[in-house]
Amino acid sequence: MPDSDLTARAAELDRADPLASYRQLFVGVDDPDVVAYLDGNSLGRPLKASAAEVSDFVSHTWGSRLIRAWDEQWFDLPLAIGDRLAAAALGAAGGQTVVGDSTTVLLYKLVRAGLALRPGRTEIVVDRDNFPTDRYVLEGVAAELGLTLRWIESDPCGGVTPEEVRAVVGPRTALVVLSHVAYRSGYLLDAPAVTEAVHESGALLLLDLCHSVGSVPVDLDAWGVDLAVGCTYKYLNGGPGSPAFAYVRAEYLPDFAQPIWGWMGSARAFEMGQGYVPADGIRRVISGTPVVSAMIAMQGTIALIEEVGMTAIRAKSVALTEFALRLVDAWLTPYGVEVSSPTDAERRGGHVTIDHPAFKGMAERLWERGVIPDFRRPQGLRLGLSPLSTSFTEVLTGVAAIRDELARA
Ligand SMILES: *Cc1c(COP(=O)(O)O)cnc(C)c1O
């Protein structure tokens, strides 16, 4: 297809996009220095409303309610936001989700608690291409407890299949830890089938939702997932380092024993008594004082998801990645660029990874011209397409810049 046809097609897709107007709610979308932001899956853009909300938090809630705000709202805020997120984006009933530490720390806590629910079992299953922090946390826990890691050698351009899971789990498996959407390839796990395969072995499944929450529909309760974590600074636009969330299936909560005992997760936090007794319910996942000041911005995006719905967000996400692949096919494959993401939309999350030897070092040149994907070793560019803040024309501008740079290379 000639350039002008694809340009016209992008404009047409933007005109027909029912979510197009949401883009204007974000900071920086008209900034001439950033013509294509393709990394919303690493750090989402802030909502314009976040500035006023953070300012109001400082001057009103913190500044004038002072310590009283703990009683009035902050003590329960991690649970209140957890429940809202659960209803809007996780397919989870109330009382099972809490916003807390970083993803890494919540992973550690949930892994340890999950293993304690399967005493006598000695193996943890994880895949070779899982996000580094997931692998490292499991390596640490395995070393700490003398357990064995069983690795799934998954396809780096695809992801873990239910068959691969079934082949590796068994009576010794305590826990399986997988990403719902693979951070590199964008592969979307068949979560219901994988959950079933894990449960057949009697093990538990911990799903990492970092790259799916806010971009791909999630149905934790219906799928039967046991435990989940996810971050809030990617598609939920919570800001750099905004705290992650944890989901614990209700049936496990009465016996759920996470390893970092702190006063904020104890049964009577303000009594300052002797001896740790965990709080009832999901509060026991909390350890110390929650990062209230970093929980402001994410609430704006959760409200948008409540308004728009995950079905419409997913439809836009699929349309964006389909269009990106069409552009790559027309403009980049003639240079030898390869697609390292699933071509089947049903098995693909919200980003697309493309590979070429010339991409090494190209990211800086793209960043200089205001086109911002990220580079993934050894030679991949990752195009992250955040459904509420990315336009089709922006995708076109980004892929055109990559073509320009390839032509120069
Ligand atoms: C982004 C991401 C993380 C990040 O963990 P932090 O503790 O927030 O640094 C973890 N797992 C996956 C799959 C991710 O994509």
From TrEMBL:
<keyword id="KW-0663">Pyridoxal phosphate</keyword>
<dbReference type="InterPro" id="IPR015422">
    <property type="entry name" value="PyrdxlP-dep_Trfase_small"/>
</dbReference>
<keyword id="KW-0378">Hydrolase</keyword>
<keyword id="KW-0662">Pyridine nucleotide biosynthesis</keyword>
<dbReference type="InterPro" id="IPR015424">
    <property type="entry name" value="PyrdxlP-dep_Trfase"/>
</dbReference>
<comment type="similarity">
    <text>Belongs to the kynureninase family.</text>
</comment>
<comment type="function">
    <text>Catalyzes the cleavage of L-kynurenine (L-Kyn) and L-3-hydroxykynurenine (L-3OHKyn) into anthranilic acid (AA) and 3-hydroxyanthranilic acid (3-OHAA), respectively.</text>
</comment>
<dbReference type="GO" id="GO:0030429">
    <property type="term" value="F:kynureninase activity"/>
</dbReference>
<dbReference type="GO" id="GO:0005737">
    <property type="term" value="C:cytoplasm"/>
</dbReference>
<dbReference type="InterPro" id="IPR015421">
    <property type="entry name" value="PyrdxlP-dep_Trfase_major"/>
</dbReference>
<dbReference type="GO" id="GO:0019441">
    <property type="term" value="P:L-tryptophan catabolic process to kynurenine"/>
</dbReference>
<dbReference type="GO" id="GO:0009435">
    <property type="term" value="P:NAD+ biosynthetic process"/>
</dbReference>
<dbReference type="InterPro" id="IPR000192">
    <property type="entry name" value="Aminotrans_V_dom"/>
</dbReference>
<dbReference type="Pfam" id="PF00266">
    <property type="entry name" value="Aminotran_5"/>
</dbReference>
<comment type="subunit">
    <text>Homodimer.</text>
</comment>
<feature type="domain" description="Aminotransferase class V">
    <location>
        <begin position="108"/>
        <end position="357"/>
    </location>
</feature>
<comment type="pathway">
    <text>Amino-acid degradation; L-kynurenine degradation; L-alanine and anthranilate from L-kynurenine: step 1/1.</text>
</comment>
<dbReference type="GO" id="GO:0030170">
    <property type="term" value="F:pyridoxal phosphate binding"/>
</dbReference>
<protein>
    <recommendedName>
        <fullName>Kynureninase</fullName>
        <ecNumber>3.7.1.3</ecNumber>
    </recommendedName>
</protein>
<comment type="pathway">
    <text>Cofactor biosynthesis; NAD(+) biosynthesis; quinolinate from L-kynurenine: step 2/3.</text>
</comment>
<dbReference type="GO" id="GO:0043420">
    <property type="term" value="P:anthranilate metabolic process"/>
</dbReference>
<dbReference type="InterPro" id="IPR010111">
    <property type="entry name" value="Kynureninase"/>
</dbReference>
